[in-house]
TrEMBL record:
Domain ATP-grasp: 120-305
An annotated GO cellular component: cytoplasm
Protein name from the UniProt record: Glutathione synthase/RimK-type ligase, ATP-grasp superfamily
Segments forming a coiled coil: none
Originating species: Mucilaginibacter pineti
One annotated GO molecular function: ATP binding
A Pfam family: ATPgraspMvdD
Alphabetic keyword roster: ATP-binding, Ligase, Nucleotide-binding
GO annotation, biological process: SOS response
Stored InterPro entries: ATP-grasp (IPR011761), ATP-grasp_RimK-type (IPR013651), MvdD-like_ATPgrasp (IPR048936)
Amino acid sequence: MILIITHKEDYTADFVINKLNDLGVSYFRFNCEDLLNKPLYRLSDDCNFEFELADGKPITSIWYRRTQVPDLTGLNLEEQLYFYREFDALLDSIYYSLRHCKWLSDPFAIKRAESKIFQLNTAKALGWVIPKTIVTNSKSELTKFLASNSKNIIKPLYSGYVPSKGETSLFFTSLVTEENINALQKFDLTPCIYQEYIEKQYELRITVVDGKVFSAMVDSQNHPDSTVDWRKHKQKFSKYDLPENVGLMCIELCKSLGIAFGAIDIIRSIAGEYIFLEINPNGQWAWLEMETAINISDAIIEYLNVQ
C-alpha cells in the first residue's frame, strides 16, 4: 500500500489520488491536520518502534508531499511553538521508523536539498553554469559584489511565501535598483541571496521523477512583469525538447542530492547557455501536466507502485 503524507488542501495529491482510484491502487492518505482528532497510527516497543497505521495495512512505499500542523487556535504563542516542535519531532520519528521503505523522496534528504547554497554548490561541482552568487551580512562585501555586475537580483534564501491571517503573500525575485544600493547603509542585511542578473531567452521547469525527465518552457520575456520572475505574470507553459546532455545533468543533480523527485528551474541565456537557478525537491507540477500533457503523474504512480 502507498502511504501519502500530505494535508487536506494539497490539490496535487488530489490529482494523483484520482488516478489511483481509477487504477484501483491501494493507498492511505495521511492528512497531518488529523493528528489531533483521529486514531491514525502507533509507534511501540513491541513492534520495534516501526510505524503502524491504525488499520494495520502494510506500507510498501511513501509519497512525501506536504505537511501541515493541526489547528492550535486557542493556545497562546508560547504553547503553539511548543506543540509545533512536538509535532515536528513526531513526524521525524515517523519518517525514521519508515526509513526502510521506498520514498518519493526521503524527507531528510529533501530538507537537506532545500538549502539553495547546497544546491548551487552541488550543481556547480557537476558542471552546471550558475550565476555569480553571494550571501553576506557585510555591507562592504555586498557593495563590491553588486558593483561587479551590470545587473543584480535579490531572492529569498529559503522560501518567498509569507502566510498572514489565512492568506499568503510572496516575495518574488527582484532586481536590485540603484535606489536600493544608495540606501544600503540605512538597512540591516537580513538573510537572502544576491546574484548577478543574466539576460535570458526563456525559462524552463524541468521535472525529474526517478530518472525520467519532463521539460516545459515559458516565454517569460514577452511581458514586462515576468522578465525577472515568471511567477509575477502567469503565462502558459509548453512542452520543450531538452538536449539529452542537459537532461542527464538534471538526473545527476537529483542523484547527488539524494532525491527521487526534483523540480528544476533553468534559464536559457541570450548566449544560448543552460543556466541552473535552483531546484525545489518537492515542487508543484500538476499545472504543468494540465497545460502541456507531459505525464508526470503516471511516472510518480509507476515509481510508487513498482516494488
